[in-house]
Amino acid sequence: MSYNPPYPEQYPKGNGPQYPQGQAMQFSQIQVPQQPGNQPMVVVMAPQQQHQPSRQFKHALCGCCDNCGVCILTFFCPCYTFGKTAGEVGSSCVGCGLGYLFLPCILGGVIRGKVRAEKGINGSVIGDFCTHCWCTFCAIVQDHNEIVPGAMGESMARE
Fold it and tell me: Is the residue at 143 inside a domain?
């Protein structure tokens, strides 16, 4: 069953109603009981969008001490931690680490946006910039713990 708009000229070619890609559209049909002498009537109900749960950071913004090693390192050398995180999302490790000395809010917001995009975390560009302006160290640690493998201490186990 396909959807044909009642007024095709309302939608220019290729700009018709948009539906999610990769999902099968399921229509449900209900047959209404017929009255004597009337033809049966079929009601087609439009599909409902499936709500996906919103993804959040694994660690809270003020959960800096979830990994004390990263927390202490970031306190004394935030550029190093920031550079390592930037390197994990495809940016220049050294360039971002040094650039963070001069443009912390801007670079921090850009890299935080890349972290969110890679992990599918909800948020906004303005929120990223504000977080790095007002909670600098906590934001660096949170981004690092989210993106760097083994940042939460799993790699410290003995074999």
Answer: yes
Greatest pairwise CA separation for the chain in angstroms: 85
DSSP symbol at 30: E
Q: What is the pTM of this model?
A: 0.60
Per the structure, the complete domain to which residue 84 belongs is given by 64-154
- 128 located within any domain: yes
Q: Residue 89: its pLDDT value, please?
A: 92
* Segments of the chain scoring below 70 in pLDDT: 1-54, 149-159
